[in-house]
């Protein structure tokens, strides 16, 4: 099967360094403290956040850690993907994802500001068209922000595959089935980021392209097979660029959301 | 921040903490150095002291490997069993599973109230999945050769690694132990009967056990990073260094410069640092693969030297599965069947004496029958079966002779023969004497035949 055509186009018409169209929605569930839906092409993830609330278990006797405990649980709807249900809730793969995502989010949350508290993050894959892990991380960041939990920075996340001798960003399901190596990366974009999104409609212009050195890798998981050193490095570079792009999208959407909230608040005042 | 261990296990004194960081920062006179005297990028295994040694030991059984790196100690054992393949997609592949367990005595805080805490179990699962990614997803072990009967029986190989003592770089030691265990493990040979699909597992005394096919050895290397010394990767950290560090990278790389798995944890590592670690880990992988192979070669030599050759006499008890050959080629077997046929067809007519005489003088019986035929004493009614027998006998012997010679190389002839035999045994209506109008016609002559034949036998 040919995954990249002679013209350099992939199965769904993208180029090797193009991610699918991201979309998002905030506050999709009024029952929890914060929630968000994040879509990456046809992949749809919902995330709900409860907390910060008083820690239920693992109290004082558990020892030194006074900081906020963040737990993740990851589930899939029965119709998320056809055929083989990869990573059902409770199996090893899903458990591992939960633990890695919890570690990643913990390093982005200001845990010291919420001592003896816990935050529960629940992600659900509604539709899996590839890149569910990356989209889950993005959805979790939006939901955490929606819940008003203080963050040190924005976590951008993306997956990179390698097929037909080329590193492909944001692989879809067909490309995942190509059984090439896959690199999932989460990067923390923290610090002073220029406010270059006055008008969110022209966000397209700066969605692409990696700039700045304020980005640090917090999760980097290579799986499904081995790669050569050069391949790994090209995948790694592409993944970091993808993380920066997705972090930028999340930042823009969060700012727009905050502006909208501020506007409503102002309307109430007057 | 510790890769693959819990956050609340061991306490490091503030003095040591500060010293580790300060030493890594270095000063004008000296570059960065470490608490145990190594250079930042230096792995354990090069020194004379106990803390700076790598030791790989195998045995006593196949597939048992103990690796010691400084004070870190891990033991790995491999077991295998025949199982039905789990998924339809991998029906022609064996399965490989890596289980990691942290012994509760390995490190303070691994166990609470005598049980491994939830976090410890999660960490051990994570480490197991990391090793699996190298060994299974990286195709280090050839799982296709573990298939015995596609869709029915494949070997399920389980490598269980137990961490016995923890002094940093758990991933590295666990990966070495797992590789060592898998490369010395031997599974018993088994064969499949193509007709019945019965799988026979041969005793290791009867047939030499088979080692797994290993394509490469994925070796994990741990690197730690400190916020105070940005860009400085500390290779193969000790436990105190791991606790003090702010971020870590674990790379699983083989000596062919292939990256099998990468996992980062902690507060973040810059992209350049990850690439630097991956490049550096190749040297470690090459070095440790050499050590591992040398140790395994020693074990293999000792194994061969100690092997006691015993004569196998298990075949005496083995089931005799050569039914076809037995049925057709044992002398006298054909004759027995013929007599039995006759006895079945004429059960009422045979008196006790007749049966006795039949049993005693079987060979003569037939000889005499033939003689009768030659003398044309037999009545016409009898002749159908008699002549049939007579005419069919000489070619049957011939073909028997032929197939006896061909038995080694021509299995088709055997089956043809079996077909013929089967046909012959099944009596058909056409073979019966009479015109087929009445049953009495068909039965009567047979009684007479029996009598004449027994009489002639007594003569």
From TrEMBL, chain A:
Coiled coil: none annotated. One of its GO terms (molecular function) is RNA binding. One of its GO terms (cellular component) is nucleolus. The keyword Zinc-finger does not apply. One of its GO terms (biological process) is nuclear mRNA surveillance. It comes from the Eukaryota. Residues 19-150 form the Exoribonuclease phosphorolytic domain. Keywords: Exonuclease, Hydrolase, Nuclease. Belongs to the RNase PH family. This is Exoribonuclease, phosphorolytic domain 2.
UniProtKB/TrEMBL annotation, chain B:
Residues 390-407 have a biased composition (Basic and acidic residues). Keywords: Cytoplasm, Nucleus, RNA-binding. GO terms for cellular component: cytoplasmic exosome (RNase complex); nuclear exosome (RNase complex). GO terms for molecular function: mRNA 3'-UTR AU-rich region binding. Residues 445-459 have a biased composition (Basic residues). One of its GO terms (biological process) is nuclear polyadenylation-dependent rRNA catabolic process. Residues 54-188, 216-281 form the Exoribonuclease phosphorolytic domain. Residues 340-459 are annotated as: Disordered. Its main location: cytoplasm. Residues 340-377 have a biased composition (Acidic residues). Belongs to the RNase PH family. This is Exoribonuclease, phosphorolytic domain 2.
């Amino acid at each position: 099967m040919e995954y990249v055509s002679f013209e350099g186009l992939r199965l769904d018409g993208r180029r090797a360094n193009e991610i699918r169209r991201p979309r998002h929605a905030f506050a999709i569930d009024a029952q929890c403290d914060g929630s968000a839906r994040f879509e990456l092409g046809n992949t749809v993830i919902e995330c709900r956040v409860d907390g910060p609330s008083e820690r239920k278990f693992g109290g004082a006797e558990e020892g030194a850690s006074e900081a906020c405990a963040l737990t993740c649980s990851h589930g899939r709807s029965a119709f998320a993907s056809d055929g083989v249900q990869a990573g059902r809730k409770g199996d090893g793969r899903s458990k591992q994802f939960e633990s890695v995502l919890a570690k990643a989010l913990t390093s982005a949350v200001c845990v010291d500001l919420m001592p003896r508290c816990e935050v529960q993050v629940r992600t659900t894959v509604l539709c899996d068209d590839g890149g569910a892990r990356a989209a889950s991380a993005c959805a979790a960041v939006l939901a955490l922000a929606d819940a008003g939990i203080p963050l040190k920075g924005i976590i951008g996340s993306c997956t990179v595959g390698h097929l037909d001798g080329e590193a492909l960003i944001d692989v879809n399901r067909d490309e995942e089935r190509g059984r090439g190596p896959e690199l999932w990366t989460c990067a923390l974009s923290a610090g002073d980021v220029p406010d270059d999104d006055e008008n969110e409609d022209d966000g397209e212009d700066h969605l692409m392209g990696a700039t700045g050195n304020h980005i640090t890798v917090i999760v980097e998981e290579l799986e499904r097979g081995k790669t050569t050193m050069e391949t790994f490095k090209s995948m790694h570079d592409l993944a970091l660029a993808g993380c920066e792009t997705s972090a930028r999208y999340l930042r823009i959407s969060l700012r727009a959301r905050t502006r909208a909230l501020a506007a409503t608040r102002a309307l109430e005042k007057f | 921040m510790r890769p693959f261990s819990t956050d609340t296990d061991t306490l490091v004194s503030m003095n040591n903490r500060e010293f580790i960081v300060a030493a890594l920062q270095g000063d004008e006179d000296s570059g960065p150095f470490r608490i145990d005297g190594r250079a930042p990028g230096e792995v354990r295994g090069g020194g004379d002291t106990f803390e700076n040694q790598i030791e790989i030991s195998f045995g006593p059984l196949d597939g048992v490997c103990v690796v010691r790196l400084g004070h870190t100690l891990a033991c790995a054992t491999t077991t295998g069993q025949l199982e039905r393949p789990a998924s339809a997609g991998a029906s022609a592949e064996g399965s490989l599973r890596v289980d990691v367990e942290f012994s509760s005595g390995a490190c303070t805080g691994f166990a609470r109230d005598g049980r491994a805490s939830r976090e410890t179990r999660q960490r051990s699962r994570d480490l197991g999945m990391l090793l699996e990614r190298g060994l299974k997803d990286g195709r280090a072990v050839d799982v296709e050769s573990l298939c015995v009967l596609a869709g029915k029986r494949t070997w399920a190989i389980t490598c269980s690694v137990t961490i016995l003592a923890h002094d940093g770089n758990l991933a590295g030691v666990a990966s070495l132990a797992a590789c060592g265990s898998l490369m010395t493990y031997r599974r018993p040979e088994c064969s499949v009967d193509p007709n019945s699909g019965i799988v026979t597992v041969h005793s290791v005394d009867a047939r030499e056990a088979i080692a797994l096919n290993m394509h490469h050895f994925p070796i994990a290397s741990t690197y730690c990073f400190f916020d105070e010394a940005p860009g400085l990767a500390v290779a193969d950290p000790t436990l105190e260094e791991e606790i003090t560090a702010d971020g870590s990278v674990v790379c699983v790389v083989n000596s062919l410069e292939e990256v099998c798995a990468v996992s980062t944890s902690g507060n973040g590592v810059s992209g350049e640092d990850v690439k630097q670690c991956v490049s550096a880990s190749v040297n470690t992988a090459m070095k440790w693969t050499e050590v591992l192979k040398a140790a395994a070669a020693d074990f293999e030599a000792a194994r061969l030297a100690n092997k006691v050759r015993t004569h196998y006499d298990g075949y005496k008890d083995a089931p005799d599965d050569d039914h076809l050959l037995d049925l057709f080629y044992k002398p006298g077997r054909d004759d027995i069947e013929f007599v039995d046929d006759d006895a079945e067809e004429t059960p009422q007519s045979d008196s006790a004496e007749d049966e006795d005489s039949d049993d005693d003088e079987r060979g003569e019986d037939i000889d005499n029958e033939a003689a009768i035929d030659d003398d044309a004493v037999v009545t016409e009614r009898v002749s159908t079966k008699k002549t049939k027998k007579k005419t069919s006998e000489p070619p049957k012997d011939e073909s028997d002779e032929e197939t006896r010679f061909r038995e080694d190389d021509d299995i088709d002839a055997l089956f043809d023969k079996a077909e013929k035999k089967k046909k012959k045994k099944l009596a058909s209506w056409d073979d019966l004497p009479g015109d087929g109008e009445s049953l009495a016609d068909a039965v009567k002559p047979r009684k007479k035949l029996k009598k004449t034949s027994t009489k002639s036998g007594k003569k």
